[in-house]
Structures are given as structure tokens and as C-alpha cells.
Amino acid sequence: MKRSHLELGGKAPAVVFADADLPRTARMLADFGYFNAGQDCTAVTRVLVQDSVYEQFRDLLVAAARDTVTGNEDDSKNFYGPLNNVNHFNTVMGKLKGLPGHVTVETGGKQCGTRGFFIEPTVLSGVHQDDAIVQEETFGPVLTLQPFTTEQEAINLANDVDYALASSVWTSNHGTAMRVSRDLDFGAVWINTHVLLTAEMPHGGFKFSGYGKDLSLYSVEEYTRVKHVMSDLSA
To answer: Where is the active site (predicted)?
Structure first.
């Protein structure tokens, strides 16, 4: 029997409260969702926004997406490059082409140009919690938007997926951040940031996102066999 250490997929939510710095948050979520064309298990994919600022934040996020430039990464003006291969490109494009009729493509959703595996920075609204684009890992430059009213509703929406690798909370209220981070069922919860990792902090998920931890002393334990030796010194 072999032990396994698995770091698998993710479907990271970012929970945005009305008291967050909305322009800063929109710009950062675009960065944390679109970097490496969204091909990172911890990348932001689901943006949950308090309903009192939903339309305002939607417009800010769409503007941030449209300001994000994709293309050959040899050009420094491009923020991200292509998807990894043709099969993955076709998978992501298939998800976008197969969206239900109730979903609105706020921006993006198409291939960039006619050559290469480039996809536009995409923002989707009107999604339902049981939609495949919400439930399944996309691994592409696609962000979904969902409104919420209460903290508990935000927590329920965030946790209601099979993946549990990473998440973030965006608010100016530290009490709110602590309450929500306690109940988010993810291996990592960032507050007013996302994706950042340090060597001394463990990284790893729950549920379908894997088992075990990278980084920190916890990762050393993954490669350690614990042995119990006891001696009776009176013998």
C-alpha cells in the first residue's frame, strides 16, 4: 500500500462584500483570475458579490477584463498567453459555446484572432449554481459572477462545489473576514488578496481538490514515516 499526496483541481470563489475597495478588488480579481490564462488550480473562477453593489462591481470587473491584454508572452504588454494545447483550448471553448441561454457573456467568450490557443478575458453573469460553468473546473480565463445578500448565502454558494482548494474574502471589516473565513471549506482562504503563497504556510485542498499539504513543515510530514521506539530502562 502506498500513501498518496494529491494536489488536484480547484474552483476558487472570491467573496466580495459591499464595504470592500471595489475598484482595487475588481482589478486584482481580474489579475488573479486571468494570470497564466486561468491555468492555475488556485486561480479565481467564481466571483460572488453582495447584491447592493453587484451592478457597480460587475461594470468594474468587465472594465478590468477589457483592459487585460492577451497575446504572445514575448511582448511585455500582454498579461497572459495561450492555453497549453489544442485539446484544452477546445475543451474551454466548448464550455463557452455550450453555455445555457440564461447566461450573459458580459465580455470576451471568443478566441483571440485565428491562430494559436488564445481566449479573450471572459466575464459571465446570470449563471445558476448548478450550471456546469459554476460546478466544473474550467482552467481558462473565465470568471463567473453571482450575487448574494447575506454572509450565510455567500458561504453556502462558495462551498457548494466539489472542489475546495482556495478561496478569498474581500472586505474592509476584519470581523466579517474572520467569520466568513472560518466557515469557508477550502484549504486556503486569503483576505483582500488571492493566490499568494509563502514557504512557511501549508498549501493543499479538501474534497476533490486532493489530500495532503505542500510547503511548510506539514509538507515534510508527507515524506516522513513515524516510528515508535520504547525502552524499559529498568530492565
So the answer is: 7
In a domain, 1, yes or no: no
Q: What is the CATH number of the domain that holds 140?
A: 3.40.309.10
DSSP labels for the chain? -----EE----EEEEE-TTS-HHHHHHHHHHHHHGGGG-STTSEEEEEEEGGGHHHHHHHHHHHHHT--BS-TTSTT-SB---S-HHHHHHHHHHHHT--TT-EEEE--SBSSSSSS-B--EEEES--TTSHHHHS---SSEEEEEEESSHHHHHHHHH-SSEESEEEEE-S-HHHHHHHHHH--SSEEEES--S---TTS-B--EETTEES-BSHHHHHHHT---------TT-
Per the structure, the count of domains in the chain is 1
Q: What is the pLDDT of residues 150-163, one digit of tens each?
A: 999 999 999 999 99
Question: What is the per-residue pLDDT across 82-119, written as a single tens digit (0 to 9) for each?
Answer: 999 999 999 999 999 999 999 999 999 999 988 999 99
The domain in which residue 151 lies consists of: 8-222
List residues with catalytic annotation: 7
